[in-house]
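Weekly sync, protein design subgroup
Attendees: M.S., D.O., the rotation student, P.L. (late)

Item 1: inverse folding check
M.S. brought a backbone from last month's batch and wanted to see whether the design step gives back something sensible before we order anything. D.O. pointed out we never logged the input encoding, so this time it goes straight into the notes. Structure tokens as presented (148 positions):
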């Protein structure tokens, strides 16, 4: 093998190894997101969210990025969950977790447009970026939140 070919192969091997290492760190750095919904029986705003957003949520990019976990407002927190603010008082309260720790919350429900805009902002602040718009059959069309 010629010295020049050997150098080219060595350089390609080093570049490939560097890309593999960078990719491995990028995959590890992505936080595990989850959206907690604190609700209670008889909450009219919870019922409105359940009717307007609930069926569509798991079909959206946001719902796939931060799966929903419902909790009664008086129930104990799931093991490993850390809230960085006061315990939820209002229902519904949506708490975005990254690797089990609160990174943001939405208190109350003022309609689908406000919910999606606020959730998109929380997700972006947590480092999430939508790869593609939500499926057309996932519910009402909405505009993306403005980029920071």
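Designed sequence read out in the meeting:
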């Amino acid at each position: 093998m010629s010295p020049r070919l050997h150098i080219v192969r060595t350089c390609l091997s080093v570049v490939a190894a560097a890309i593999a290492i960078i990719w491995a760190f990028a995959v590890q750095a992505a936080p595990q997101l989850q959206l907690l919904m604190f609700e209670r029986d008889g909450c009219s705003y919870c019922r409105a969210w359940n009717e307007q957003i609930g069926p569509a949520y798991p079909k959206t990019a946001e719902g796939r990025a931060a799966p929903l976990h419902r909790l009664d407002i008086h129930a104990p927190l799931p093991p490993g969950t850390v809230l960085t603010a006061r315990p939820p008082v209002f229902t519904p309260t949506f708490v975005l977790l990254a690797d089990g720790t609160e990174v943001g919350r939405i208190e109350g429900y003022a309609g689908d447009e406000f919910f999606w805009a606020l959730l998109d902002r929380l997700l972006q602040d947590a480092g999430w970026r939508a790869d593609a718009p939500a499926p057309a059959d996932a519910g009402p069309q909405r505009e993306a939140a403005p980029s920071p």
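Discussion: Helices lie at 3-29, 44-52, 61-65, 112-125. Residues 73 and 87 are 9 Å apart (CA to CA).
Action: P.L. to compare against the previous round before Friday.
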